[in-house]
Amino acid sequence: MAMCPDASPQAFIFLNRDGGFLDPNNFRKRVLAQLREPLKLPKLTFQVIRRTMAMLSQTTGASKHTVASMTADGHPALL
């Protein structure tokens, strides 16, 4: 496993081949579209994944406070 070259809080978690940030549009086309097609989903975006994760977390017993902190909404009333 490769070591992270920059462990600072400001460092990117997922890097492109050159060590920069991933272009979200490129990632959607290359990765999310490839996942969406075999699953026969009409749409698959970061927002769809985020909302699905929040809904599944709540239905399996996670508190609104926990889900709000995971989704960075910050306030449980927004869920």
Describe the structure.
The protein is mainly alpha-helical and 79 residues long. Helices cover 48% and strands 0% of the residues. The protein is built from three helices and no strands. α2 runs antiparallel to α3. It is flat. The N and C termini lie far apart (37 Å).
Core attributes:
79 residues; mainly alpha; 0% strand; flat
Q: Into which percent range does the helicity of residues fall? A: 40-55%
Number of helices: 3
Radius of gyration: 16 Å
Number of strands: 0
Low-confidence stretches: none
How does the helix and strand content classify structurally?
mainly alpha
How would a textbook summarize the main sheet? Answer: none
Distance between the termini: 37 Å
Strand content: under 5%
- Mean pLDDT score: 80
Shape by Cα distribution? flat
H-E string:
HHH
Give a topology summary.
Blueprint: H1 24-39, H2 46-59, H3 64-71
In short:
It contains 3 helices and no strands. It has helices spanning 24-39, 46-59, 64-71.
